[in-house]
Amino acid sequence: MVNITLDETDFQLLKALDENGDIDADEIADELDISQSTVYYRLEKYREQGILTGKIGHLDRQKLGLEITAITEIKTVYGPKSMDVGQRIQELSGVQQVYSMLGEMSFYVISHLRDHEHLQELVESIIETEGVENSATHIVLRTFKEEPRLLVNYDDADLEKLFANTTSGQRS
After folding, report:
1. Is the same domain home to 72 and 43?
2. From CA 117, how far away is CA 71, in angstroms rounded?
3. Gap between the Cα atoms of 165 and 1, Å rounded
4. CB contact set of 10 (below 8 Å; sequence gap of 6+)
5. Residue 100, domain member (yes or no)
6. 97 and 46 assigned to the same domain
7. Number of domain units in the chain
8. Which pLDDT value is given to residue 10?
9. What is the layout of strands, in order, in the sheet containing 107-113?
C-alpha cells in the first residue's frame, strides 16, 4: 500500500470537500487562507493518489422511486468459487453494495428497489445464482442513518488520530 502524507491544509481541504460534496475553489481558498491554485493543485494530487475519485452528485433515491431498501444475507458453497458469486451478485439490478464476510454468511448485499415486484425479481435472481446455498432478505422499515460522506461520520478525536497517522505516513 502506498504511504500518503497529508498536512493540516490537506486535511481541512478534504474535510470541506467531504462535507459539501463539491468545492468552490474561491470559497475554500478564502476559508483556508490559501491560493486558489493551491486548491486546484491539491485536488489534482488527491486524484493522482487515489484519495479523490469521480465526480458524483448525490441522488435522492426515494424521489426517484426507489422506495424499498433490502439487506440480503447470502451463504455460498465454501471454496475459491464463492468469490464468483459476489461478482455475479454485484451485477444484479438494484444492488448497490456487496460485502464479502467472515462468519456464517458469505455476503451481505444492500439493494434499493422500486417496489415489491422488483424485490421479488432480485430475490429470485439471487436464489438462481450458481453457488448460492441459501439466502435471507430483510426489508428496512426505517433508516436512522445513511451517510455516504466519509469524514463527517467521525468525531474530532477520531479525525485527529486519523490525521496523526496520515501526517506520519503510517496507515493502520
Report:
1. no
2. 16
3. 14
4. 42, 46
5. yes
6. no
7. 2
8. 85
9. 95-100, 107-113, 68-76, 132-139
**Residue 163 grid coordinates:** 490525521
- pLDDT value at position 172? 41
Which parts of the chain sit beneath pLDDT 50? 1, 169-172
Distance separating alpha carbons of residues 138 and 108, to the nearest angstrom: 11
Instruction: Give the dihedral sign, CA 155/53/114/108.
Output: negative
In a domain, 89, yes or no: yes
Residue 52: what pLDDT? 82
| Residue numbers of the domain that contains 19 | 8-57
pLDDT of residue 123: 98
Same domain, 39 and 89: no
Q: What is the pLDDT of residues 38-54, one digit of tens each?
A: 988 988 888 888 888 77
Q: What span, in angstroms and rounded, lies between the C-alpha atoms of 91 and 98?
A: 10
- Looking at residue 168, its pLDDT comes to 54
Domain for residue 33, yes or no?
yes
Residues β-bridged to residue 135? 74
Contact 6, 166 (CB under 8 A): yes
